[in-house]
Amino acid sequence: MDLGKFGATSEEIATYQKGIPKKTSRKRVQRDVPRHGSGDRFIKGPIPMEWMRAANTCGRRSVSVAIVIWFAAGLQRSNPVKLSQTVLAELGIPSRTAKRVLERMQSIGIVEVEFHRGRSPLVTILDVPVR
């Protein structure tokens, strides 16, 4: 490229280039993972990645329902868990959406669900079926 076409001398160009800050590599700052405080709610794990991957195939909001299931399991310290309106409200999941997703999860075999009119569904978390 002919810099003379731009009407600047090589000294002027060199002076200009000295004023441009050079790109510097930014060092990543290592930070601790956020932890829950005393009295804060949290999701108890570990949650198997294969189970979450299977749950993810069950449509919209399926990951939210999966997280609520595991949250309820940690909260109630049991399997099966009762998936009440209060627990679903933690992530703002409507009960009809939860029912639709639970039916899909049951069809692929990662949960067993007992539905009863007027009561919260009883959800049993299962191992991911071997394919």
What does this structure look like?
By secondary structure, this protein is mainly alpha-helical. It has a domain at 49-125: Arc Repressor Mutant, subunit A (Orthogonal Bundle), CATH 1.10.10. The protein is 39% helix and 8% strand. The protein has five helices and three strands. It has helices at 10-19, 49-55, 62-76, 85-89, 95-108; strands at residues 81-82, 111-114, 122-125. It has a three-stranded antiparallel sheet. A hairpin with a 7-residue loop joins strand 2 (111-114) and strand 3. The longest helix is centred in the middle third of the chain and has 15 residues, at 62-76. The radius of gyration is 27 Å and the shape is elongated.
Distinctive features:
131 residues, mainly alpha, Arc Repressor Mutant, subunit A, 5 helices, elongated
Question: Which stretches are poorly predicted, pLDDT < 50 over at least 5 residues?
Answer: none
Q: Give the averaged pLDDT, no decimals.
A: 87
The CATH architecture name of the domain at 49-125 reads Orthogonal Bundle
Roughly what fraction of the amino acids lie in strands?
Answer: 5-15%
Question: What's the CATH C level of the domain at 49-125?
Answer: Mainly Alpha
Please state the overall shape, judged from the principal axes of the Cα atoms: elongated
How many strand elements? 3
Number of helices in the DSSP assignment: 5
Q: How do the SSEs run, as a string of H and E?
A: HHHEHHEE
| Largest β sheet strand count, sense and barrel closure | 3 strands, antiparallel
